[in-house]
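Predict structure. Chain length: 530.
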Amino acid sequence: MERRRALAAGTGLIAGAFLPLAGASRTAAAAPAYTNPVIWQDFADIDVIRVGATYYASASTMHYSPGAPVLRSYDLVNWEIAGHSVPVLDFGAKYDLNGARGYVRGIWASSLAYRPSNRTFYWLGQIDFARTYVYTATDVEGPWSRLTTISTPYYDAGLLVDTDDTLYVAYGNTTISVAQLSPDGRNQVRTQQVFTTPSSVGTLEGARFYKINGQYYIFVTRPANGQYILKSSGGPFGPYTMRQVLLDLRGPIPGGGVPHQGGLVQTQGGAWYYMAFVDAYPGGRMPALAPVTWTPDGWPVVQLVNGAWGTSYPTPAVPTPPRQVIPMTGVDTFDGTRLKPRWEWNHNPDNAKWSVGNGLTLRTATVTNDLYWTRNTLTHRIQGPTSTATALLDFSAMRDGDRAGLALLRDSSAWIGVKHDGGATRVAMVNGLTMDGNWNTTGTGTEVASAPVSGGRIWLRASADIRPGAARPGTFSYSTDGTNFTRLGPAFSLGNDWRFFMGYRFALFNHATRALGGAVRVSRFELSTP
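Prediction complete.
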C-alpha cells in the first residue's frame, strides 16, 4: 500500500484447457537450462499471454512514450520488443512537458489480451486514477488505436476473454471487483465487488484474470513480497476463495527482491509458467520465469530450487522458434523511417523537432537549464548486470548555449555531453541533477569536469552497474577517434531507491539554454555488455 500512496495489470491461457497434475511439467533430465532473470532490463507489472506458438508480454512505462511495450517470444526465455500498445500519452499536457510533468504517472499495471473471435489484441489500463482506456490492434507491431474510454478507473486491471467471448475485467486494491464489458468492449455493463482482502494479508492488487478448466482465477499481488490466487467455481463474479502462492520467497537476483506481480501462461505442450518481476534497483524491475504445477484440486504451485525461485530451470519444451528474436542490445544507426521499438521518449516528443533516416537528428525543442523539463529526450533501458552505451554525436550545428549528450537518467541523474558557449565547445561531465519525492526538480546539475573539443563530432560513453542491493557506480568517458576513450569526471552513484519505480536509463538529449535553432545528429548508438 505504501507503494501506491507514493503515487497519489489478460488472458493468454487456453480457456478451459486441461490442468496438468502436480509434477506433470517437464523434468530436468538432460534438458538445456535457462537462467533468471530472463530479461535483464526494466519491464514491470508483466501480463503474459500466448497466441498460437507466440508469447507476448506487456509492461509498465509510466511517463515514457510510446507506452506499454509489447514483448514477443517463441520460447518464454528469449524476448524482443515488438511494439507499443499506447502510441502517444494523450492524457493531458503534463505528458507533453507543457506546463506540467507526468513523472511516475501514466502507464502502469495494465493488461494485454487476445480475442480470437475478431483476431484482435486488447490493451486496457487506467490513467491517473480517473478513467480506463482500451486500445486495440490486429498486430502487436501496430497500428494500435484507441477503442474506447471507460469512466470507471480499473485499478491494476486484468482482462479476461471468456470462452463465450465475453470480456471481463478484474481490478482493485484490497477490495477486488469484477466488471463485465459490452460485447464490443466499449462500455461497462456490470461491476461487482467479489473479494475483500483479509486484514491478516493486508493489500492485494495487480490482478490477472484467467479461466482454466471451467474455473475462474484472479492472480493478485501483495506488494512487494507476496503472490496470492483467488478461485471461483461459481462464475466470474464468485464467490472466491483465496490461497497463498508465495510469500517472502528468496529471488534469483542477488540483492534483489521477491518475485511478484506477473502472470501465468501455458505452453502448447500443456506446461505452465509464472513470469514475475524482481525489484532490482537501480536498474528497475526484471522479469523472471519459473515453472508451475497444479494441485489435484486446482491450485498453482511455483516450483522452487532449494526453497527459492531458481536462478536456473530446464528450458521450456516448445517447438523450434521460426527465427531468432531481435536482440535488445547491439548497434542502432537510426536507419529507416521510424525509431526501433527499443526506444522511448521521456514524455511525449515534439515530433517536428526530430527525425531519423541518416542517423537521429535532435533539434532543440526546449529552452531550459533543466534536463527534467527537456523535451525530446530519447531513452533506452540499461542492460544488466552491467552495460555500456556509446553514442557518436555530430555537434557541428549546435548554437550558442546549447547542451547535448548522453545521460544516466532517473530522479538523480548525471550526463556527459557537449556545451557550446561563446563560439567555443567543450565536453563536460555534469552531475547533481535531482528531484524530490514529489518529482519536482531540486538540482539542475553542476559541471564537475570538462575538456575543450573541436572537429564537429565526438564519441560519448556511459557505463552503468545496475546490480541491486546498493547504490552502484556509473562512469563517463569520451573519444575523438572512436577508439581511445578518456574518462571524464568522478564516478556517479546510481541510487537504488524504488520510489521512482522506473529504473535508470541511458538518454540522448539536446536542449537550448538561450534560443531554439540548434541541432545535433547521433549517427550511431551501441549498447554493449562485457
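Summary: Residues 2-5 form the longest helix (4 residues).
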